[in-house]
């Protein structure tokens, strides 16, 4: 049996992604071997493939490199000393972040400490949505210190991180505002947010006195959104490429501001999987692509108009 993987062969457009074959790895001490059902495609994968950011600069001499940090699948074997999982268990995890990657593989060995058990009531598709995007959403809101009754503005609420951030903020009893395209206005309303169509007018003309800005876009849209904040506003900006600029501008205006790098946390993923299993959190998937169509999956993310997540089906 062979292990097909999708690798970045050189930095550039989506066409640099290629399918390669390797042997199925053997789990070492403390590791489990997963047969990957679904791998999540995240903006960081696209950024790294283009040669941007820290993971790219650290891996530039290690190409071809297999990206991917979100996986869901089944345990097929376990290494010495593994106690939490056994063969046949369904698991999901935020793996190999940020330098190892490896999620775009049909089989991957992962330390058991990086994994969460997937409850029977949760599909492997839904489980693959949560690791990176869900934890980014939860940690951004946590960093901002969102409290009940506060007005929270989340840019790009329909995206992979955004749709989860909106639901967590609503569950925390905040009053949630978000930006989206016209096509997603109804969807955002069903999640409990006041949605602003950014194609119609800048958000600064529609929202005022926000206590918190969760910026999932960066750049000019984020600079405009700073105008929506009240005097003691707090800003958490997620896109790393513009974080310094956004934070500088926010602080000049007298706001608290910070960038963030998500930190893999299996206990947090356990909580989110539980929330999905009991219906407290809904995952949204724009499309699932067979692994052979990874170029199209990356092109979809690059449009900037993805509702929820894009997944790769690693077994077809």
Structural class: alpha/beta
Biggest sheet descriptor: 7 strands, mixed
- Counting DSSP E segments of at least 2 residues, the number of strands comes to 15
Task: Identify the overall geometry.
Answer: globular
Radius of gyration from the alpha-carbon trace, in angstroms: 19 Å
End-to-end gap: 15 Å
Overall pLDDT metric? 98
Helix residue percentage: 25-40%
Topology:
Layout: E1 2-8, E2 17-23, E3 31-41, H1 43-49, H2 54-59, E4 70-78, E5 90-94, E6 107-111, E7 115-117, H3 124-129, H4 131-144, E8 151-154, H5 162-171, E9 175-180, H6 185-190, E10 194-197, E11 210-215, H7 219-225, E12 229-237, H8 240-252, E13 256-259, H9 266-277, E14 285-290, H10 294-302, E15 309-313
Parallel strand pairs: 8-9, 8-11, 9-10, 11-12, 12-13, 14-15
Antiparallel strand pairs: 1-2, 3-4, 3-6, 3-15, 4-5, 5-7
Helix pairs in contact: 4-5
Overall description:
There is one protein chain. The chain has 316 residues and is an alpha/beta fold. It is 28% helix and 29% strand. The chain has helices at 43-49, 54-59, 124-129, 131-144, 162-171, 185-190, 219-225, 240-252, 266-277, 294-302; strands spanning 2-8, 17-23, 31-41, 70-78, 90-94, 107-111, 115-117, 151-154, 175-180, 194-197, 210-215, 229-237, 256-259, 285-290, 309-313. Strands 3, 4, 5, 6, 7, 14 and 15 form a 7-stranded mixed β-sheet that branches. A 6-stranded parallel β-sheet has the order 10-9-8-11-12-13, with helices on both faces. It has a two-stranded antiparallel ribbon with strand order 1-2. The radius of gyration is 19 Å and the shape is globular. The two termini are 15 Å apart.
């Amino acid at each position: 049996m062979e292990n097909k993987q999708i690798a970045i062969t050189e930095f550039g457009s989506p066409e640099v992604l290629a399918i390669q074959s390797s042997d199925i790895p053997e789990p070492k001490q403390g590791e489990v071997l997963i047969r990957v059902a679904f791998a999540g495609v995240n903006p960081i994968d696209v950024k790294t493939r283009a040669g941007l950011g820290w993971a790219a600069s650290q891996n530039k001499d290690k190409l071809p490199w297999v990206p991917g940090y979100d996986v869901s699948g089944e345990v097929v074997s376990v290494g010495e000393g593994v106690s939490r999982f056994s063969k046949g268990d369904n698991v999901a995890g935020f793996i190999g972040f940020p330098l190892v990657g490896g999620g775009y593989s049909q089989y991957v060995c992962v330390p058991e400490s990086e994994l969460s058990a997937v409850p029977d009531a949760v599909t492997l598709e839904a489980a693959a949505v949560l690791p990176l995007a869900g934890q980014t959403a939860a940690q951004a809101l946590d960093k901002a210190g969102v409290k009940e009754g506060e007005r929270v503005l989340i840019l790009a609420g329909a995206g992979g991180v955004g749709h989860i951030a909106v639901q967590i903020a609503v569950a925390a009893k905040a009053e949630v505002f978000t930006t989206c395209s016209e096509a997603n206005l109804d969807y955002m309303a069903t999640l409990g947010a006041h949605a602003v169509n950014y194609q119609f007018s800048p958000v600064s003309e529609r929202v005022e006195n926000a206590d918190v800005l969760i910026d999932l876009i960066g750049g000019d849209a984020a600079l405009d959104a700073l105008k929506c904040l009240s005097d003691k506003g707090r800003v958490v900006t997620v896109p790393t490429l513009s974080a310094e600029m956004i934070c500088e501008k926010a602080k000049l205006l007298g706001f608290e501001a910070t960038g963030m790098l998500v930190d893999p946390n299996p206990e947090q993923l356990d909580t989110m999987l539980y929330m999905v299993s009991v219906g407290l959190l809904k995952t949204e998937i724009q499309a699932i692509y067979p692994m052979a169509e990874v170029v199209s999956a990356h092109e979809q993310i690059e449009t900037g108009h993805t509702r929820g997540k894009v997944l790769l089906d690693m077994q077809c």
